[in-house]
Amino acid sequence: MKSKPVPDLFSYESIAKYQTDLMNGSCTCVAAVHFYLDKIEQQASLNAFVQVYAEEALERARQLDAERASGHPMKPLHGVVIALKDVLSYKDHPLTAASNILKGFTAIYTATAVEKLLEAGAIIIGHTNCDEFAMGSTNEHSAYGKVLNGIDNTKVPGGSSGGSAVAVQTDCCMLSLGSDTGGSVRQPADFCGIIGLKPTYGRISRYGLIAYASSFDQIGIFGKNIPDVALLLEIISGPDGFDSTASKEPVESYSKSLTPKDKLRIAYFKEALESPSLDPEIASTLQNFMEKLRKEGHIVQPVDFEYLDYIVPTYYILTTAEASSNLSRFDGVRFGYRPVDKKPDLHSFYCQTRSEGFGWEVKKRIMLGSFVLSSGYYDAYFTKAQQVRKLLVDKTNLIFNNFDLLLLPNAPTTAFSFGEKSNDPISMYLADIFTVFSNLTGVPGISLPLFWHSNGLPFGIQAMTNRFSELSLLQVSNHWMLHYREEKN
Ligand code: GLN
Asked: What is the reported pLDDT for 343?
């Protein structure tokens, strides 16, 4: 292959188009990386990145260009430029979960999902900002400072994977990875007007993902089109000897069969669409959308969901309990933050490290989690919440016996202003009402940026399918993205 001069203008549409351009010589991986590095610099004020691996990404791009030139076949993610949330381990690179307690820490191994990206030819361009230990809905709780929404800098980008969402939103990379424990991929995708997929619990190995709440955590994908997201999912999914919860369920060729079934049975929770917390314009848009689906011949029916008021408390009891246990390993003894004037006895040293190293939101959740697990309150809170989770799982199984798809809003409102909910944790937590359901039950969920609000901000719809039915989820998503996406006016 003859190498052509680097084109002045690089524009990205999809992995397929990009790789065709690479093959016919109208583009190079080096040109792509330069383009994204420039963008990252231009958008620096949004604070989406905490680390940019410029030299390394360029070096890898050069290698890939040289491999192609010498006739090597392209791997599926050849040259695809990807950013990682700062909770994903990448050997010999900084890893902090946006927390002071891990400042200066360097990853000693690579997460399985990241390893798979690299094996498939991807280029990692940097680590992105997030809420500390992935706890938050606004990206205001980060040791690196807040991330701004690229559409309106006065608005939050959503959280906790706000940096990964803004990186894709503002074309600082082709795709990015985040983590979703209660909505941290779907909600920022919604606030930023891009796609956010949370796969089935266990679809992607969690090895190398810093744990927040292990029975909820799942790596998720941000992108701008479904074929890209489907390809990435196909590559990073599958069993893993390092994570016993990573499922052996076969990984389908998600990206190769994106034609949807003709007629779908679609359910929605009436209580959700009638929820007083839901913005009326979002509610009416979603109702109209469902009416349109009905007219197309799909069955669209409400199902009773009597548990709506219980899902947020259940989520916060169980996740804080798991967090209090997971985060006990951060004690300053072997790695991470160490106070300068450290206290002489071990117990005071632990207290000092954790008091100084963790931010307030994380400390609050560790305390809450310790409380719900304490002997006097265990049954009243933790056991009760486990029982509610079981009811939710049973309910979900019943729904998916009769329906192919479940629809919900992503969030009660569009992106809100900084500080608007910071002093009111209850209202902040309640805003997770529509996303925590899929983490409590383990089903996959996707946020699709189909609509624009009269306030000028994007919002979408959340679709869910049964466990491990990502293929049908991606098929409908592709159809809706191609045919029903509103243009901003
Ligand atoms: N907003 C939710 C929380 O603060 C979700 C976090 C997440 O998914 N990581 O717990």
From this structure: 79
